[in-house]
Amino acid sequence: MRSPEALAQRFREANLKVTPQRMAVFEVLGTGPGHPAAEQIHRSVVEKLPNVSLRTVYQVLRELSELGELVMLDLGTGAVRYDHNLTQHHHLVCDECGAVVDIPAHLTEVQYAGVADLGVSVSTAELVMRGTCSPCHAAGSTTAESTKPSSQPTMQQLGDPHA
Amino acid sequence: MRSPEALAQRFREANLKVTPQRMAVFEVLGTGPGHPAAEQIHRSVVEKLPNVSLRTVYQVLRELSELGELVMLDLGTGAVRYDHNLTQHHHLVCDECGAVVDIPAHLTEVQYAGVADLGVSVSTAELVMRGTCSPCHAAGSTTAESTKPSSQPTMQQLGDPHA
DNA sequence: AACTAATCAACAATCATTGTTGATAACGGC
DNA sequence: GCCGTTATCAACAATGATTGTTGATTAGTT
User: Fold this and answer.
1) Where residue A113 sits, what CATH number does that domain have?
2) How far apart are CA A7 and CA B33, in angstroms?
3) What is the pLDDT along chain B (163 residues), one digit of tens a residue?
4) B44 in contact with A, Cβ within 8 Å
5) Nucleotides of C under 7 A from a protein CB
6) Looking at the C1' of nucleotide C9, which residue has the nearest alpha carbon?
7) Which of A1, A123, B34, B42 could form a disulfide with B57 if both were Cys (CB 3.0 to 4.6 A apart)?
8) Least CB–CB distance from A119: residue in B109, B129, B137
9) How far apart, in whole angstroms, are the C-alpha atoms of residue B14 and residue B137?
10) Residue B16 sits in the same domain as residue B54
11) What is the DSSP secondary structure assignment for residue A9, as one 8-state letter?
């Protein structure tokens, strides 16, 4: 993630104006947790700058992704997650709380050279793991409850489960 | 994918009745392409058994997935894809036509033992590749057009692009 | 044959996301 | 500091996939 100032610069270069709303989004992205959905970002933005519409947040996020400063992740969690980690990494989706955890690429080994034989060409490859995140895993191992209660956490209640 | 008869048997064992509608879905799944969305399955089902509602197809697919005979795949293509390939494999999503291609696991190498250090636990790991499928790749290499026209094919028009 | 489950049609609702519109605000080049 | 061009706003509608509902009808299974 680049600094808000760097992003502002990029926007100016792209002939996009640097408005307070956009700056607010830039700042929120830098501080917040790793993979927020648009709703969450909006909630944070409104805290510092009220009256910013959700509509505008969607807009800014889209612009950021078009500039390559952000990656839109659809991991089947119901809403798109915005990933500002620009380094090589993979993801783990927590089955219990829906959190998305970054998995540094160096902890994994992924090769798919043989795939070319199928006649396809691969531009990106991402490893999507499912399991339990660290906090949920810790909680589960001690309390040993939840056999399978969590179906799919909705975006509403998805405000940082571990806080 | 098990045979329609085998699936019927499983349904009976689960105290689920084997209706013509369900059988029709079973049969369609065996014959059709690899990763249909519910709408596509419905279209095929209606061909052999009219008056089957989309509602019912969703229902049957859900039951199949609850029995573990089917995997619901959300690859960010807009709709859930139903995967009846029960062997170890990964997926490639074609950026151009939206097709989902099976990639046999033996063509790849995926390891993530080091991930345990993060305190998380992994139950499944799937490699999601993006690129171009074989037909699109062949077409693209000769005609060399499409710089980036296809934004996101919608389900409606997504009836087997290569037929 | 009877009990129960499944299906139907027809509709409404959900949820994330994008489009629209007309009015207001404000960035940035001069 | 002015002005033209963009951005943003509120408020609303629409999309598209999916699930819920309801009351009536059909049809497996024992």
Assistant:
1) 3.30.1490.190
2) 44
3) 899 999 999 999 999 999 999 999 999 999 877 899 999 999 999 999 999 999 999 999 999 999 999 999 999 888 999 999 999 999 999 988 888 999 999 999 999 999 999 999 999 999 999 999 999 988 876 544 444 444 455 554 455 556 5
4) no
5) 5-11, 15-20, 26-29
6) B53
7) B42
8) B137
9) 44
10) yes
11) H
